Amino acid sequence: MKYTEDHEWLRVDGDVVVVGITEHASTQLGDVVFVELPEPETQVATGDEICVIESVKAASDIVAPVDGEIVEVNDALVDNPGLVNEDPMGEAWFFKMKVEDMSQLDALMDEDAYNDMID
Amino acid sequence: MVPFAGYEMPVQYPAGVMKEHLHTRDAAGLFDVSHMGQVILRAKSGRVEDAALALETLVPVSLLALSEGRQRYALFTNEDGGILDDLMVANRGDHLFLVVNAACKDSDIEHLRAHLSETCDIQQITDRALVALQGPKAEAALASLVPGVAAMKFMDVASFDWDGSTLWVSRSGYTGEDGYEISLPSVDAARFCERLVALDAVEPIGLGARDALRLEAGLCLYGSDIDTTTSPVEGALEWAIQKARRRGGEREGGFPGADRILKELEHGASRRRVGLLPEGRAPMRAGTEIFAGDQKVGHVTSGAFGPTLQAPVSMGYVDSAYSTTGTVLEGEVRGKRLPLRVADMPFRQSNYKR
């Protein structure tokens, strides 16, 4: 598992990378009430704002953590945004990316580094 | 905790905004609203009627008709017909008791002193807390401490003794639920609240839930939905202006901005505050611009996800031509135009005990 400063997690699953938001982020957001996902087959670059997530408190963006192509999105979140609070690190993944250059992940934080950051 | 009108206020308790909201609708929620201003207005003559007549010079509301033991919603207006604040006025027998918004309380008291000092004593109450207990189980919960409150009706006010303390209770609130607002000596407030939250039905509720509760109930928030730039008629608050103060009434006009407000009561205003239901799931928050085709026709002043409705809810101003219930308009969210429909308020039936 890798982590970004924007509180996203990345899990490598075969030749795709699964992306979601961390437990810490979901707690900070509070109850999530709206999720907007990108279109599959979209090419994205690191830092592109590709998802919108709204909680009872505020709206925020989720950015592409690395360069790549969106290959699948989790439509279950659109119908049930509360899943982001219930299981942020598992069921509530946001999208899957095909990443040409997997070495991009090397620059991201591991779990210990992420935990140090949020402490 | 967040800063709010000079107070540190809880946005949410550990349960979170959504659970707190639903708990208030299902059982009873306890809100600390001690930041609000409490003011006693007493006529120098000693007659409450004189205090009512004096205050009528500042609000377009009939207060002479307000009976002892009753409360009424009112608005301080300015010379332009805008709204300086909204407030509750209670007739407590020999004086009027006012509850005003926290952010406006200093200017409200200054306003009262500037205009009513000759005829009235204006006393700001700073040693009393204010809490609200709201929800279908509020009556049973409060009556377990103070049995007399069960007999009160919506907008009744009365005093009760509780454990050596005097409670000033009104059957009212800001959630669309039955419930009470209770003023009591600050020194007794923690003890009183602890007794209430010890009951199974009662949970503490933060500012976050309070906002969506009042929004679902169609109640406006001063500073967001009404302010000095909106008139009572634009704000869809005509119901607060009784016949006695309207054209042809016994005490017609005689309040700041009467020319404009009386005219608008007869002919309507060019824009109107309406309920707005976004058709998708995306909340349309304050500032969202509203369009009819290419034409901008209004904006959202409050918007959130409504946990009871399980859908986004908003209110805002639109040109009167587009204010009819059912009119479909578009709100611009993150550059995209999404449909929203003009809707009646409250968005859900309020549960007042009439």
Overview of the molecule:
The complex is a heterodimer of chains A (119) and B (354). With 119 residues, chain A is α+β, with helices and mostly antiparallel strands. Chain A has one domain: RNA polymerase II/Efflux pump adaptor protein, barrel-sandwich hybrid domain (OB fold (Dihydrolipoamide Acetyltransferase, E2P)). In chain A, 19% of the residues lie in helices and 36% in strands. Chain A has four helices and nine strands; from the N terminus they run βββαβββββααβα. In chain A, the strands form two sheets. A six-stranded antiparallel sheet of chain A has the order 1-2-3-9-8-5. Chain A is globular and about 35 Å long. The model of chain A has no long low-confidence stretch (mean pLDDT 95). Chain B is α+β, with helices and mostly antiparallel strands and 354 residues long. Among the domains of chain B are: 2-35 and 127-216, Probable tRNA modification gtpase trme, domain 1 (Gyrase A, domain 2), CATH 3.30.1360; 37-107 and 231-268, Alpha-Beta Plaits (2-Layer Sandwich), CATH 3.30.70. Chain B is 19% helix and 34% strand. Chain B is built from seven helices and 19 strands. In chain B, the strands form four sheets. A six-stranded mixed sheet of chain B has the order 10-11-12-9-3-13. In chain B, strands 14-17-16-15-18-19 form a six-stranded antiparallel β-barrel. Chain B has a five-stranded antiparallel sheet with strand order 5-6-7-4-8. The longest helix of chain B has 12 residues, at 105-116. The radius of gyration of chain B is 20 Å and the shape is globular. The A-B interface holds A 30-31, 33-34, 36, 52, 54, 56-57, 59, 78, 81-82 and B 11-12, 16-18, 208, 212, 281-283, 285, 304-305, 307, 312, 334.
